[in-house]
Structure formats: C-alpha cells, structure tokens
C-alpha cells in the first residue's frame, strides 16, 4: 500500500525494537545538517536496557521498483546508542542498515521520518488548548501486525497544558493507556481534516 494520508505515513515511521529482555518502540527521525539529512532511530534509554551497545532486532519495509513499500526484511543490529545526558532518550545512526540492505538484498528501505519541523516551539505550544486529543503510534505489550510489519495506534489526551512544563523543564503529561512496549512511541496531535487552535482559528 502506498501511504497517502498522514496516518498512513505514520505506519512507516516506527520500528518494533526487540532486545533479549523485551521490546519497545523506535521511530525514524531525520536530522538536517547543512544540506544533508542524517537518518536515525530514536527511542528511550530503558528500551535498550541503558546499554550503549545493546543489540536490537527489528523489521524494515523495503521498496519495489516503483518506490512503493513492498516486503519486509528482518535486521539484527549491533547498534551504537548515543545517550542524552539528562533525559531518558537515545538514538543510533541507521544509514549503515540501509546500506547493508542495499548491498545484501539489492533493495532500498522504505521509511518515513519525522523532522525538526514537526516539533513545536514554545509559541506554538502556547497556542494549543489545555485539553488536546493525541495519537500514539507503537507496540503496546509488544502487539503489532507481524504479517505486514505495522504498529498499533492508540488515542489519549493532554493531561496538562502543552505550553506549561509539568514540574520539570521540558516535561509534558498525557492521559493515555501506555503499556510496556509503548516506550519510545511518538505522540502526535493528529487532525487530518484540519485543526482549530484555542481561538478557533482554522489551521
């Protein structure tokens, strides 16, 4: 299936990360440095057991001759995780995986990455209302569509105003059914038919 809508594109943004002790969620993110895009996988430190060299197993989507998603390949990756100095966040470079898939299987990986443009600044956060509906994409209790390699969508709400830090700088609070396996899941405000801010301005 060629993803068209935003929610369909989200189906190709996450990765079900398996370790020897369990599983969690990772997501593709493109860092932009100058004219270069550097793809990485972002997750929580505890998903990789606070081990900077934790081996992970996951599946990637591959492209057909027309550039559309077609097929999946299982990957085992001796990743070098780079840890945030304070927060429960880490990332690893994923381009080596893309190159290995191309070399070994003569295929390219199909993925859709988030970017810095999706992260709202303080001004945009303050334009939101205290109660916003949210969507989380990931693998609660390890659940997934293993035949098609697709994640699970869950819904919830902001539990405090997005524009005000909850007790600690940079922390937000959500009311959502989060289970082991959801760790690392990206959370979005998703309004595919349009969106109105707290002043009822259509965005």
UniProtKB/TrEMBL annotation:
Entries under InterPro entries matching the protein: Peptidase_S1_PA, Peptidase_S1_PA_chymotrypsin
Gene3D superfamilies, alphabetized: Trypsin-like serine proteases
Protein name in the entry: Serine protease
């Amino acid at each position: 299936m060629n993803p068209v809508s935003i929610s369909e594109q989200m189906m190709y943004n996450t990765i079900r990360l398996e370790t020897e002790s369990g599983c969690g969620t990772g997501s593709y993110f493109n860092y932009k440095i100058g004219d270069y895009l550097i793809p990485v996988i972002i997750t929580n430190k505890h998903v990789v057991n606070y081990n900077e060299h934790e081996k992970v197993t996951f599946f990637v989507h591959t492209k057909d001759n027309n550039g559309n998603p077609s097929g999946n390949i299982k990957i085992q990756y001796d990743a070098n995780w780079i840890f945030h100095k304070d927060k429960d966040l880490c990332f690893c470079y994923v381009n080596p995986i893309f190159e290995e898939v191309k070399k070994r299987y003569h295929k390219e990986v199909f993925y859709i990455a988030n970017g810095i443009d999706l992260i709202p600044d303080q001004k945009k956060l303050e334009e939101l209302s205290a109660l916003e509906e949210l969507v989380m994409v990931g693998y609660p209790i390890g659940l997934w569509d293993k035949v098609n390699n697709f994640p699970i969508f869950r819904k919830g709400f902001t539990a405090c105003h997005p524009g005000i830090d909850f007790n600690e700088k940079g922390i937000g609070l959500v009311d959502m059914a989060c289970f082991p396996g959801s760790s690392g899941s990206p959370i979005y405000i998703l309004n595919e038919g349009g969106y109105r801010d707290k002043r009822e301005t259509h965005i």
